[in-house]
Each structure stands twice: as structure tokens, then as C-alpha cells.
Design goal:
heterotetramer, A alpha/beta (about 550), B alpha/beta (about 290), C mainly alpha (about 160), D alpha/beta (about 425), A: alpha/beta, Rossmann fold, 4 domains, 5-stranded parallel beta sheet, 15 helices, globular, C: about 160 residues, mainly alpha, Fumarate Reductase Iron-sulfur Protein, Chain B, domain 2, about 40% helix
């Protein structure tokens, strides 16, 4: 065995985030005493370009072979430090991080001494592991220059068009017999009230005539294998099952509109309709009610659908304007009016000027709707006048929420992507990765992600058109070397690992033994943990490394 | 500096102390006051709640007289000042209304033009007489006294028609007080209404509203309350005993018209300033002020 | 439901009210007189319930402090709305405090709300303008014409 | 292949640049201030994950800095644009930093020794910086810059201390502004927004009452790297605020003083800030005065529900009429109506946070003229049609993303940024086909 590698430790003060509670200089001094550590220093912000340069200089000056940074979380900063190592010729897998902020200084602000001790422990553990780190090679894979778009609504079509215009082939898989999705059900569109058909029809024509776009209607995705760059998609079409080879996948399946059976006499009294049914009636010009009452949050912001559906208020306001222009009185009963931003604020003001009447109601005291011999009766307590109000509408319109499509769960399991607590598809990071999935090569846009209006859906659609094209434009991509490896001499071929792998990253080879598909493996470690033969090694998280780390944790100094 | 002096109903029929102190002090500051012959009620409040045209007519009528005199129009009362301002504003924005009003005025051979320069007494003192003239005239500076300013609603609101001072942070009356050698001071209740216009419909409420401010002014350690509005004065001074009777608690807050304090500070006698008409307990303070 | 709006209610743009609550929280009366709430008044105007408001006594309890007009974010003036409603109410001879009729009568007939008073000094002496050394009070030059004009105006239908 | 011009180095501009650069397109990122990062860099945490804002942003900033395909022009502005989509000729004016970018290591010694203090705009005016300074510790590029209006050498011909102490001799008082010309295929505008200054809303006393702050000032106050080190001590006396109130719609939803639109994200940042207070001190009292709770975004309602049920944040529907300051204690009394029950009440608090509207950048007018695109009546950039072309201006090849065309939250801005990258990429393919 070769001589112990030379380890460098960089302790970040993170301004005062760490330094205010952890005695950083002391920690640095301590680090210098650890086995294998040839150099240690502190930085104000190790992640600043200055800090990164210090790492590079130290690597050259002291011939460091392993780098440990004690700072914040690998979630955000590891790639940055790894890249820095690579730039100085140290393989990124020879880098180790100790989180002495989130799990140390922040949580022990009231006990600085203990925080300092814990920081030392964490660094000791990281150094122990670092000594055993091995460099890794990242598999590089070709990317098939073709995208699968699941869903032929506005989002799906706009995403497809942009990707096609960026020079890649696209296949749209739509389960209905026609393109267009929910937009087909709209009369006019807010905020500017142009006719839905004027937006939809030209779009459908462009999509169906684009040389790079192929549309499969009445088709559904049945199977998904492979990984970023090389997906094999089994699609059931009218002509039977077809296998598509694509590089990236876009989920644009949209959402359904809740039909609130039994709520406010819906389904019992014909004069009670949903906002989307009203759209149809308006479209056919079949609304002749003199007094119309609209109830917002009908079936949303409650136990069953705890979220706000975003578009219902604006749809109601838009329809209310259309109806008041026909000399009818419209009352909108709302909880919190979601007319956000510039366009919808304008819409709200227009509605008010045109005499649409707004009455607030309270969630805990929803309106009571009864069917009297002489018509509908809506009674409520309204904070607007702070008293009971009674209305006698000829028509009652319920603004119901968008809900996840029926087959969302099924699709999420096929794609191995998560759903949120409301059943909508869940993005990789709420703030900074809003249209990526955690799984590489799969993206999300439109109302499948959460309720949103057409413009917002289109923006996301164009967004994924960029995200999904990046790897195709690059032609080749690397994937992490943190992966499992099956020891063929130990594997019994029981197949347990194949069953538990959440990424379909293992297959049986011709010898009937398990084998990792390097490019697909995410290194989650489930297979390694379950293998009864201990035949699976997790690179970068080997038993030896973890054991060393664990023992270091128990060491007394 | 020459001004057409418009007294208004309240001042000329009962608030003699205000009028006397104005007439006594202004000449000392080289302000010449010219009486307005044939003036009538400005229309506020009697007509504001009854008939808008009657209000505009009454108001325009007096403006017309000032315009006839060719002098800037000086008011002592917040109500009159706002009434005139709103009339100038409304008639300025509506030529039709202006014609209509002038038809009515023609009967008396009057003509409203709307070009008149309108000024409130505290505005005149602050913006036109100014600090130097006032401080120069001081013979008996009110050192060591701390007065709460009461600008009164109608002198600061509504700002959108243009008022003599800031609607949320009025400072002119405070500055006028400090120019007399006394101290002023911000207090949270400063911009609150005196409630006087409720006298017609809900007298008790007036006392409650006014009492709240008087108690606050007391609590915050002021030596007295100073105003340039006859309506405010009527409540805080004339009704103070009634407020005390209702509220039970001792208030004993001396209340003055600013022009009365000004008079004392430039060496005029109490009698010249009609201070004997103040109903609030001012005597002790007057002794401390001393001077002439 | 909505009944004919009187002409003078046209420009009050009550319907643009956001029900924010800034006016009542600025109002010295809302905290003291049950039922007087400028926000609710505007809401009722927006809902076409003027008739109900004009009958209500609270209509007469505004102090005209103008904070509502000053601060309304939508440039609605509850104060002006209230004045407008009062004028209609008086015009329709609905019940209202008699104080208004008295001062109107006084102004129409004498040019001022009241005749110069005898006022008392702190030590109970009585004083009038003369004893104060003040010039006699002013009144319109041509009183009959003045009165005639005002009567004429008051008889016109403002609605 | 021609590069793409991205104007504005906030999160939107950063995302647009990275999308394009990652696919192999050269990008010129123009930033007016000394560092990229924008408003997001000033925020303490971001909901609902409560990630430390700069912690998740900094890696992306550094990524821009290190990306071979991205050139950052800080302290620069676009002064001229000619040509058409696929072939724009643009002039960039780089203002002098008075510091040699190649030599400066960002060690900060110069500002340590600089004698002149000025309010730090990064600390929203609550903290101070020197005449020569680094915008903030994680600034990108990490290069010092001299504020010539403050510097003693430039104003009085004195000092030159920074020059003496700089170990790498980077200070250069003679540095001139620099005009560069670029040929780009598309232009992406991501200039963001400004916070409304509430001083004109007199009844709330901002500027008069020390303990009335704006939400952005609060973000710095509550931030561990802020002027108080994250201690919620109020300006008047440094006393920790145990009772704090937030007021929504300050400068928004009004026809009088301010802007008539709803600023979209204030309800949620107020809720986040309220939760931050509770995280610091669960026993402290927090009240939010709102008009309509805008919980329209993904996860918003859930976050608000948790703020109420778990953290005990109190929501009151009512826009306060007035704030009063006690002349002695400097405590603030809020006059409000609980409109749910129509009752007028008062509450005394230690500190009030005004949730001010996001308003158009004052420079938009000038930039719009240079770019030859339209602004809306408020001064935000106008898109052709918000429904079918949400990121396209009237001018082909010029795109907008983020809050420069109306208030948007971070995820919307990020998605739109990628959208503009897609449009720009379409243009590149088109022009290549053309050739």
C-alpha cells in the first residue's frame, strides 16, 4: 500500500454564520494535528473566488492529494469545490465536505464551546474518510437528439414547437383523439379576453405541419426504460405498441377541472354550473340570467384540496365582465381575491368599474345555497357589509379548482418522478429548479406542475424547451461516478437489487448475475444495503470509508 | 402687506377673543387688515350637507367681494378657508358651474372670477410675515413653556385641493410657537379631529372626542393647547368644563388662539387680546408668562 | 335589485372600493358610534342600497374630519358620499337633525348662522362686539336679493 | 455562432445565461452594479424550504463567473442597439471601478483601511460600507470598486490610503470608462424591479418613525450576515422587537400615492418574514395586516396555513389607517379595522414592517429607448401578448424575463429565464439555417 495521501483542510468562517459560534482558528489548529493532514487554513468565504483560488494555490504549493472543505452543505456547494479541485488536477472524487454550519454552528448557537468540539469531530470524520477516497471516472454518454412530450395541450404543443425550432425531433403523445387539451373548453382568455380558438387553432396547425414534430393521438405511455440521453419509451398507439428512442422527456399532461358533486346543489339543480361549464354556455351564447352569483374556492382551500387554484378568481372576473356587459347583475362571492400582478389587477378594476359586485365570505361560514320554489337562494354573512346578505340568482356558478389528472400517479411511477402532497408533479427545487425533475433528462411544465394560466404555462413550456435541449445540444453528457458495482464472484443472481432499485439501474447479464448500468445509477445505495451476499460496493461510499468515518466519530481526542 | 379680512360667522358672532387678538397683533407686524363690506356665511357647514349649489354660491359670493376689493382674502377659520378652497377648486374644474354661480351672483351685481389669493392666518404668519419679523417683534419671549399645536382638520386636509400645511405631518403652527420662544412638540393625537361639527347631531360624542385629545395633551406634559381654528377653540376651551364634568378626570388645560400668545409675546395687554373670554384655566399660566 | 341611482351619486365611484378598511380605522366616529362605518357605507352604495342608508340616523354623525377622504387609496371620498346622501335625504325630506334647518333658515334670512352673541368672560362679565371695541358685524348689502337668490337655489331639484 | 446579450445579473439573468452557456452559446452578461446577484442576494431565506437565499444563489453566481462561455460586464450598461434579430450591434459602456480587475483579489484590505463611510445599498441602507468596497462578501466578480462621489481622493484630492495598503497594487485612480461593441443574435432583458419608497405615505410615518422599516430592510435586519448579525434589534434603541407587525399593499393597490396593481409576492414574503421572526423567537408576537391573502402559487396556501397553525402568526384583514409613534418609548400604535367583524381596534408594537410594492426600475425608460421596445403605463417592459408570447417584446429578438415586466417570484422568473434562452436558441438555429 502506498504512503498515506496528503490531505488539505479548508475551514470556512462563512462570514459570521460559522465564525460567530465556532472557534475557527482553534478548529484549524486541531485539523493540522489530524493524521494525513499536511495543510489547513481558514477562509472568510471558501466559496468566494478568493477562497477557491486559495485552495488551488495550496494544492500546488503543498502537493495536496485529498481536499476537505469544512463549511456549509454539499447540496449547494460540493460541485463548486469539486470543479475547483479538478482545475488543479485533483480528481473530484478525492474531495470531501464537512457541514459545520447547517448541522453545527446554526443549531448550536447557544453553546459555542460544544459547537467548536462538534466541528472538530465532523472534520476528523471527513479527514478519516478522505484518506480512503478513490478517484472516479464519470461515464460519458451520447444523447439521442429527440424529445418525448407527454400531453398535447397548449404547454405540450408550445414546448414541442420550440424544441423542433431549435433543431431537434419531437414526438407528442396525446391520450385524447385531438390536440388542444383543456383550452378547447374555454370561451375567451384572460387577461385580454381574446377568443380561445384564435390562440388554439393556429397552434394546432403549426404543430401538425412541423417537419420535426410527430403527433401520436389516442396514445399513452406504457413503459419507460433508460436514462438521460437514451430513453426507451413504450407507447401504446392505435396501431399497437411502439418503442420510441428519445434523449429527453417533457411531462405536460395538464390537469383536470373538479366537478363538485353535491356541493352547493351542483348536480342537483340545473341552474348550478361550474365556471368551465359557464365558459361553454357563454361560447354558445346561452346565458340569459338576469342575476348571476359566482362562488369562489368551491372545492378548494379546504381539507380535500388545501391549495389555491390560482386561476379561478381571474376566470370568474373575466366571465363576470362578459355577463355584466349583457346588462345582468353579477355577484362574486370570494374569500381572497387572487387578482395578482399587473394584468389581473387591471381586470379586477375593470370589473369593478363595470359594476360587477364583490362580496367577501368567510371560509368558516360558507354561503348556504337552497332551492326555493321561486328559484335559487344564496344566504351568507359577508364581511363586506358585516351583515347577512340574501341573493336570489337565476344562475349559480361554482369556481372549482384544477386537480391532478387521473393517471398522474401511474405516470409518476413509470417515470420514477415524485408527486407533491396535492398530487401534482413535483419539481427538483421549488425556487431554483422549478421545471426540472430530480431525475436527469425529465422536465415538467404547465398545469401538471400546479394550476396556472395560459401565459404562465407557455412560459414554462418554453422553459423546458430550453432545459430539455441543453443535453441534446451538448450531444454528450457525463453522469456521476457515485455508483454501485456488483462483485460478479459474490452475486448469487437473486435479483433483490433489481426489485429495490428506484432507477432501473440494474440488469441481469447473460450469466444471470446483476450488473449496474453505470449511466443510470444515482448511487442511492439501496441495492448495496439490501444485497444478502454483500456483493455490491457503493463507490465513494464504500464500507471501508463509512467505517473509518464512523470510528473517527467515536474517537476521543 | 394688505389683506381683506374675512371673519366668518363663528368668529364675528362669538369668538371675539380671536378677532381682537388678530386686529391687535397684525398691525405690529406691518399687516394691514381691510374689513369686507357685505359679506355673508361661507356656506360651510350649513349648506354642505343640504345643497351643494347653495354652498358654492355662498362661498363664491364672499370671494367675489374680495376680488372686487382687489386684495388677497385672509381667513381666520379653517372651515371658511376650506370652503373657499373647495369652491375655487370645483368652479375651476367646471365652467358650467361657474357660469351658473355667476348668474346667481349677478342679482347682487357681484362677479366671481376665481383668481383671488386665499390665505389662512397661520399661513400668513408663517409664510409671509415670517420668522425674522416675528422674532424681531418679541419683547416677552415665552421661554420655558411647552405648547401643543392644534392645526385642525380643515387646515391640513384634503391635501388634493391644496392646504396650508402637510396633511399627516403639519409643522407650521409648531414652528410659529417656537418663534415665540416657547417649545412645541409632536404628539400622536395632533392631527385628530376636535369633533365640533357633531354638535348638531351628537353633542355627547363631541365631548368624548375632544376630551381624549385634551387628556393626551395633559398626559404628555404640555402647558397649553394652541390653535388657529375657532371650531377647535370652541370645543377645547369653551366646552372644557363640560368635558371635565363628563370625563370626571381633572384636565385643566389652558387653551389659546395663537394670535393671543403672539400678542403676549410682543408685549400686548391681555385685554387687547380678549383673553378674558378664554374659558379654560389660563390664569396661572398668564401669571407665569407675566410680561406686560 | 339595484334601484335608480340619484344623479349626484354618479361620480362617487364607490364600486371601485377594495374594502380595505383604511377609512373606518382613521375615523373618530366609527369607534364611538355603533353602526357608523364609512367602509360599510361605501359597500352599500356599491351594492345599490342607498335608500337604506338615507333612512339611517348614523348618516348624520360624520365629523367631517376628512381623514377618510385624505387617505382612501382608491380616491373614493366617504365624506363626500355621505354629504351627497345627506343632501338627497334632506331633499326627499327624510328625517334629519333639525339643527340643519335652523342654521339654513338663519343664513338665508340674515346672512349668518347666528346673530352676534353676548359672551361671558371668565369672571362672569358679559361682553359684546361693541364692548370688545370691535366694529359692527357684517351682513349682505342687498338682503332681500340675497335671500331671494338662496331660496331660489334651495327650491331647485338637485337629484 | 453569435453570442447572446443578457441585461441584468439577478436570478433571471443568471439562469438565462447559464441555460445558454451550458448548451454552448457564448453569453455577455451586463450588470449595472459592481456584482451580479440582484435582489435575491439580499434576501435572508426563501420559502417554503427556508433555504438561505445567498447560499443557494452563490453557487450559480460563481458558476456564471467560472463558465467559459459567459463574460460578465459589471458596472456596465447598454447605451446603444442597432440591427435586427440574428444580427444586433450593441454598445456597452463599462464604468471605471478605479480598481484593476485583473490584479484585485478581493481581500478587502482596502475597505478595512478606507476612512470614508457610506450607507451600504446591499444592506438596504441599514449598514455601512466604505468609499472603496466589495458589494458583499460573496460578490461576483469579487473585485473592489471605488465610489468616486465618496472617495476623498476624487472629492478633495486627499488620502490615497487604499493605493498604499493594496498588496497587489490594484488601485487605479486613472482608470477610464470603456466603450465596447458587440455583435449579438438576441437580447434578453432581465433588469428586475425596485422597491417602492413609502415615504410619501405620510400616515405610516416611514422616514419619520425610526422603527418603521421596509420589508427589504427587514431582510437585512434578520439576516445573519446583516448589520445586526441577525438580531432583531430595532433602530430607535437597539431593543429586540418582541412584537412586530407587517402591513401589506404599501404603495400597491392604490389609485393615489403609489401603483394600482397588486404586487403579487408581498403576501408570501411577509409570511416568510413572519415565520423567520417566530423561528428566532417563538414567543414573539407577529401580526400581518392584509387585504386579500394572495396564496395562488404552488405551496403558498400550505405555507400560510402552517404559519398560522404551527407558528401562530396572526393575520388580520384590514389596511391600517395610521401608525402613531409614542414620543418617549418610540413604540408604534397601529389603528386598524378588523374588517371581518367591522371593528376598529388598536395594537401597540415594537416595530412595523411595510411590505412595499415591487415597482419598475427607474432606468427602464432609458433602456427601453435604447432597445426600441415599449413600456406599459407603469414603466414595466411590455410583452407582445401575455397569453401566447409571454417573454417576447414587440421587437423580434428582444426578450424579457423576471420582474422587469411585472412582479414575479423566483421560480416564475427562473422558468421565464429558461424560456428566453429557448427563444434565443431558436433564433440561432434560424440564422444558421439562413446562412
Amino acid at each position: 500500500m502506498t504512503s498515506a495521501p496528503r490531505i488539505g483542510v479548508f475551514v470556512c468562517r462563512c462570514g459570521i454564520n460559522i465564525a460567530a459560534y465556532v472557534d475557527v482558528p482553534a478548529v484549524v489548529e486541531y485539523a493540522k494535528t489530524l493524521p494525513g493532514v499536511t495543510y489547513a487554513e481558514e477562509n472568510m468565504y471558501t466559496c468566494s473566488s478568493d477562497g477557491l483560488n486559495k485552495i488551488k494555490e495550496a494544492i500546488k504549493k503543498y502537493g495536496l492529494e485529498r481536499i476537505v472543505v469544512a463549511s456549509c452543505t454539499p447540496r449547494t456547494h460540493e460541485p463548486l469545490f469539486q470543479a475547483t479541485c479538478e482545475e488543479s488536477g485533483v480528481n473530484k472524487y478525492l474531495f470531501e465536505m464537512a457541514n459545520i454550519r447547517d448541522q453545527c454552528s446554526w443549531v448550536h448557537q447557544k453553546e459555542p464551546e460544544k459547537a467548536t468540539e462538534k466541528a472538530k469531530d465532523l472534520i476528523r470524520m471527513a479527514v478519516a474518510k478522505a484518506a480512503l477516497l478513490e478517484s472516479g471516472d464519470e461515464p460519458e454518454i451520447d444523447v439521442t437528439p429527440s424529445t418525448l412530450v407527454i400531453g398535447g395541450g397548449v404547454s405540450g404543443m408550445r414546448a414541442a414547437l420550440s424544441i423542433a425550432d431549435q433543431g431537434f425531433n419531437v414526438t407528442i403523445v396525446e391520450k385524447e383523439s385531438t390536440l388542444g387539451g383543456k383550452l378547447r373548453g374555454f370561451d375567451s382568455l384572460f387577461p385580454h379576453k381574446q377568443k380561445a380558438s384564435e390562440v388554439l387553432m393556429p397552434l394546432i396547425t403549426r404543430v401538425s405541419t412541423h417537419p420535426r414534430i410527430r403527433v401520436l393521438t389516442k396514445s399513452t405511455v406504457k413503459s419507460v426504460y433508460g436514462f438521460l440521453g437514451n430513453f426507451d419509451i413504450g407507447v401504446e398507439t392505435r396501431q399497437g405498441v411502439e418503442v420510441l428512442k428519445v434523449g429527453t422527456i417533457i411531462v405536460a399532461v395538464g390537469a383536470d377541472i373538479l366537478k363538485p358533486k353535491g356541493l352547493y346543489l351542483y348536480g342537483e339543480d340545473p341552474r348550478v354550473v361550474t365556471q368551465s361549464e359557464l365558459e361553454q354556455l357563454l361560447h354558445k351564447g346561452e346565458v340569459d340570467a338576469k342575476i348571476v352569483v359566482m362562488i369562489q374556492c368551491a372545492g378548494s382551500r379546504n381539507e380535500e384540496h388545501p391549495y389555491c387554484s390560482r386561476i379561478c378568481c381571474n376566470e370568474a372576473v373575466k366571465n363576470a365582465i362578459n355577463i355584466t356587459e349583457k346588462e345582468s347583475d353579477v355577484y362574486i362571492l370570494y374569500r381572497d381575491l387572487q387578482t395578482y400582478g399587473i394584468h389581473y389587477s387591471r381586470l379586477e378594476q375593470e370589473a369593478k368599474r363595470k359594476g360587477v359586485k364583490f362580496l367577501k365570505y368567510q371560509a368558516e361560514r360558507p354561503p348556504l345555497v337552497t332551492s326555493e320554489p321561486d328559484g335559487l337562494k344564496v344566504s351568507l354573512y359577508s364581511p363586506t357589509v358585516n351583515e347577512a346578505v340574501e341573493l336570489r340568482p337565476d344562475m349559480l356558478v361554482l369556481s372549482t379548482p384544477l386537480v391532478p389528472v387521473a393517471d398522474a400517479k401511474e405516470l409518476s411511477q413509470l417515470l420514477k418522478v415524485p408527486l407533491d402532497s396535492n398530487g401534482f408533479f413535483m419539481e427538483a427545487h421549488v425556487k431554483l429548479r422549478p421545471i426540472d425533475f430530480a431525475t436527469d433528462g425529465i422536465f415538467i411544465c404547465g398545469t401538471a406542475h400546479s394550476p396556472k394560466d395560459i401565459g404562465e404555462s407557455v412560459a414554462q413550456a418554453l422553459g423546458v424547451a430550453s432545459r430539455a435541449s441543453i443535453p441534446m445540444a451538448k450531444k454528450r453528457v457525463r453522469t456521476a461516478a457515485i455508483m454501485s458495482q456488483v462483485d460478479q464472484t459474490r452475486c448469487s443472481g437473486c435479483g433483490t437489487c433489481l426489485d429495490v432499485c428506484p432507477y432501473n439501474a440494474l440488469k441481469k447479464n447473460d450469466k444471470g448475475l446483476a450488473e449496474t448500468i453505470a449511466a443510470v445509477c444515482k448511487g442511492c445505495g439501496v441495492c448495496g444495503a439490501t444485497c444478502p451476499e454483500k456483493a455490491i460496493t457503493m463507490h465513494h461510499f464504500t464500507d471501508a470509508q463509512i467505517e473509518a468515518q464512523g470510528l473517527a466519530a467515536l474517537e476521543e481526542d | 402687506m394688505k389683506y381683506a379680512l374675512y371673519l366668518g360667522c363663528t368668529v364675528q358672532t362669538e369668538q371675539y377673543g380671536y378677532e381682537a387678538s388678530v386686529r391687535a397683533t397684525m398691525p405690529r407686524l406691518d399687516v394691514e387688515l381691510v374689513g369686507m363690506v357685505g359679506v355673508s356665511c361661507c356656506g360651510f357647514p350649513p349648506f354642505s350637507s343640504v345643497n351643494e349649489l347653495a354652498w358654492l354660491y355662498s362661498s363664491a359670493r364672499n370671494i367675489a367681494i374680495a376680488e372686487e376689493m382687489g386684495l388677497p382674502l385672509l381667513t381666520l377659520c379653517n372651515g371658511c378657508h376650506l370652503s373657499f378652497t373647495e369652491t375655487i377648486h370645483k368652479l375651476g374644474n367646471s365652467p358650467e358651474l361657474k357660469v351658473k354661480v355667476n348668474e346667481k351672483l349677478a342679482g347682487e351685481g357681484l362677479r366671481y372670477d376665481g383668481k383671488v389669493k386665499l390665505v389662512h392666518i397661520f399661513e400668513l404668519l408663517h409664510d409671509e410675515v415670517g420668522k425674522d419679523k416675528i422674532t424681531a417683534a418679541l419683547t416677552n419671549p415665552l421661554k420655558g413653556f411647552r405648547f401643543a399645536a392644534q392645526p385642525g382638520c380643515h387646515s391640513i386636509r384634503p391635501s388634493r385641493v391644496g392646504r396650508p400645511d402637510n396633511p399627516e405631518n403639519p409643522k407650521k403652527l409648531d414652528e410659529l410657537i417656537t418663534w415665540l420662544g416657547a417649545e412645541a412638540g409632536d404628539y400622536p393625537e395632533k392631527n385628530d379631529c376636535c369633533g365640533s361639527s357633531l354638535a348638531v347631531s351628537a353633542g355627547k360624542v363631541v365631548l368624548d372626542i375632544a376630551g381624549e385629545k385634551l387628556k393626551a395633551v395633559k398626559r404628555r406634559g404640555f402647558d397649553g393647547l394652541v390653535t388657529t381654528c375657532p371650531f377647535c377653540f370652541k370645543v377645547y376651551d369653551n366646552k372644557q368644563r363640560a368635558i371635565q364634568a363628563m370625563g370626571g378626570k381633572e384636565i385643566d388645560m389652558p387653551v389659546f388662539y395663537y394670535t393671543q400668545l403672539l400678542g403676549l409675546a410682543i408685549g400686548l395687554k391681555q385685554e387687547e387680546l380678549g383673553i378674558d373670554l378664554n374659558q379654560s384655566p389660563v390664569d396661572e399660566l398668564l401669571i407665569r408668562i407675566g410680561g406686560a | 335589485m339595484t334601484q335608480r341611482k340619484p344623479k349626484m351619486m354618479d361620480k362617487v365611484n364607490a364600486e371601485t372600493c377594495d374594502q380595505c378598511g383604511k377609512c373606518p380605522s382613521s375615523c373618530p366616529v366609527t369607534v364611538r358610534i355603533e353602526g357608523f362605518n364609512p367602509r360599510q357605507i361605501i359597500a352599500k352604495v356599491a351594492l345599490g342600497k342607498e335608500a337604506e342608508l338615507m333612512k339611517s340616523q348614523v348618516l348624520w354623525t360624520c365629523t367631517s374630519c376628512l381623514k377618510c377622504k385624505e387617505r382612501c387609496p382608491e380616491e373614493i371620498s366617504p365624506y363626500d358620499v355621505i354629504l351627497a346622501l345627506r343632501r338627497i335625504a334632506i331633499n326627499l325630506e327624510l328625517p334629519h337633525p333639525e339643527g340643519y334647518d335652523e342654521s339654513v333658515k338663519a343664513v338665508v334670512e340674515t346672512g349668518v348662522v347666528q346673530q352676534p352673541q353676548l359672551v361671558r368672560t371668565r369672571n362672569k362679565e358679559r361682553k359684546d362686539r361693541k364692548s370688545m371695541g370691535l366694529p359692527p358685524a357684517e351682513k349682505p348689502r342687498d338682503m332681500t336679493m340675497y335671500t331671494k337668490t338662496l331660496r331660489g337655489i334651495l327650491e331647485e331639484d338637485e337629484l | 455562432m453569435k453570442p447572446v446579450l443578457v441585461i441584468g445579473g439577478g436570478i433571471a439573468g443568471i439562469q438565462a445565461s447559464l441555460d445558454l452557456a451550458d448548451r454552448g452559446t457564448k453569453v455577455h452578461l451586463i450588470e449595472k452594479t459592481p456584482s451580479i446577484g440582484g435582489v435575491m442576494a439580499q434576501l435572508d431565506k426563501t420559502f417554503p424550504t427556508m433555504d438561505c437565499s445567498i447560499c443557494i444563489l452563490a453557487p450559480k453566481m460563481i458558476e456564471c463567473y467560472r463558465h467559459p462561455n459567459i463574460t460578465i460586464h459589471s458596472e456596465s450598461e447598454v447605451v446603444n442597439l442597432e440591427g435586427a434579430v440574428g444580427d444586433f450591434r450593441v454598445k456597452i459602456l463599462e464604468h471605471p471601478r478605479s480598481v484593476d480587475a485583473k490584479k484585485c483579489t478581493g481581500c478587502g484590505l482596502c475597505s478595512e483601511k478606507c476612512p470614508v463611510k457610506r450607507p451600504s445599498s446591499f444592506q438596504a441602507g441599514l449598514g455601512q460600507r466604505k468609499a472603496i468596497y466589495l458589494a458583499f462578501p460573496q460578490a461576483v466578480p469579487l473585485i473592489a470598486t471605488i465610489d468616486r462621489d465618496a472617495c476623498l481622493w476624487f472629492t478633495k484630492g486627499l488620502c490615497r490610503t487604499c493605493e498604499k495598503v493594496c498588496p497587489s497594487k490594484a488601485v487605479d485612480y486613472e482608470q477610464k470608462e470603456n466603450l465596447i461593441e458587440l455583435n449579438v443574435s438576441s437580447v434578453i432583458t432581465a433588469t428586475g424591479f425596485e422597491q417602492y419608497n413609502p415615504k410619501d405615505i405620510g400616515e405610516y410615518g416611514y422616514g419619520r418613525y425610526k422603527n418603521v422599516l421596509t420589508a427589504l430592510e427587514f431582510e437585512r435586519l434578520v439576516c445573519a450576515s446583516g448589520p445586526t448579525g441577525g438580531v432583531l434589534s430595532r433602530p430607535s434603541d437597539g431593543k429586540v422587537s418582541h412584537n412586530t407587525a407587517f402591513i401589506q399593499c404599501v404603495g400597491s393597490r392604490t389609485q393615489t400615492v403609489g401603483y394600482s396593481y397588486c404586487s403579487a409576492f408581498c403576501c408570501m414574503y411577509a409570511t416568510k418574514e413572519a415565520v423567520l421572526i417566530k423561528e428566532h423567537e417563538p414567543s414573539s408576537h407577529v401580526t400581518i395586516f392584509y387585504m386579500d391573502l394572495k396564496t395562488f402559487g404552488k405551496g403558498f396556501q400550505g405555507f400560510v396555513d402552517r404559519a398560522q397553525s404551527h407558528w401562530g402568526v396572526q393575520y388580520i384583514r384590514g389596511r391600517p389607517g395610521e401608525i402613531r409613534e409614542d414620543p418617549v418609548t418610540k413604540n408604534l400604535t397601529i389603528l386598524y379595522e378588523n374588517t371581518e367583524i367591522g371593528k376598529v381596534e388598536r395594537i401597540e408594537v415594537d416595530m412595523v414592517i411595510l411590505c412595499t410594492a415591487a415597482v419598475p426600475h427607474r432606468e427602464n425608460k432609458e433602456l427601453a429607448q435604447v432597445l426600441g421596445v415599449e413600456l406599459d403605463e407603469y414603466g414595466f417592459f411590455e410583452v407582445g401578448d401575455p397569453v401566447s408570447s409571454p417573454v417576447e417584446t414587440g421587437k423580434p429578438g428582444v426578450y424579457v424575463c423576471g420582474s422587469c415586466h411585472g412582479p414575479r417570484d423566483i421560480p416564475e422568473s427562473v422558468a421565464e429565464a429558461s424560456a428566453t434562452a429557448a427563444k434565443a436558441s431558436e433564433n440561432i438555429v434560424l440564422s444558421e439555417v439562413g446562412q
